[in-house]
Amino acid sequence: MPKPRPAVKPRAFEEICDQIRAQLAAGKLKPGDKLPPERELAGRLKVSRAALREALRSLEIAGVVALRKGVKGGAFVQSGDTANMTRVIQDLMHLGAISLADLTEARQLIQSGVVRLACARATEADIEAIARNVERTAETSRRGQGEERRAAIAEFYRLLALATRNEVLKILVDSITDILVRFLRGVSEDIELPGLVAHRRRFLRHLRARDAAKAAREMEGHLDKLHALLARSRPR
Description:
Shape: elongated
Largest sheet: 2 strands, antiparallel
Structural class: mainly alpha
Number of domains: 2
Order of helices and strands: HHHEEHHHHHHH
Strand content: under 5%
CATH topology of the largest domain: Four Helix Bundle (Hemerythrin (Met), subunit A)
Number of strands: 2
Helix content: 55-70%
Mean pLDDT: 85
Distance between the termini: 46 Å
Strand order of the largest sheet: 1-2
């Protein structure tokens, strides 16, 4: 029988990161809080200042803290930035760990939930904002304004997520939509899904009617067509 491998002990800076994250989870640290000075914090955590600096740099890269220089500088707890999650997912796609099919499947599941919640929770103001976006999409498509059209596409999904009143869904949609728009920009300046505006207008009718089943089917059909188009257009 093979001998069990000894557990790998976390490095000092990783243990420090875990301690600071634990304080965030416990509510002892909140966005905007300034961490104690380096010497004091190292003493409290019983670690070297070198290990503490490495931990703070790691947390800065992760978007957990911001390191500021100067008299009023120090390490400050960040309020959170979805761009960090977007970068991680995008890097994994570039490295081949996440496929376009994976991304589409995740979008299908997430957007289906978003649509159903939006049908239940959207206010009239939410629906009117989405209606204005649909007309903006139509106008930019008619004029052949690629970059403006992509911005309208991104805005559509964000407005729909806002209508759910669910913070987690808003973060997930923001992240995946940002990756989609970057993907569209990278594939071609002129790529456009035929029937996009007609789809948006049908979807809006179902949303106004609060018909979650029809709205979800409309969204699923659109995402299927978009995936097929992107798969054909993606450089090999």
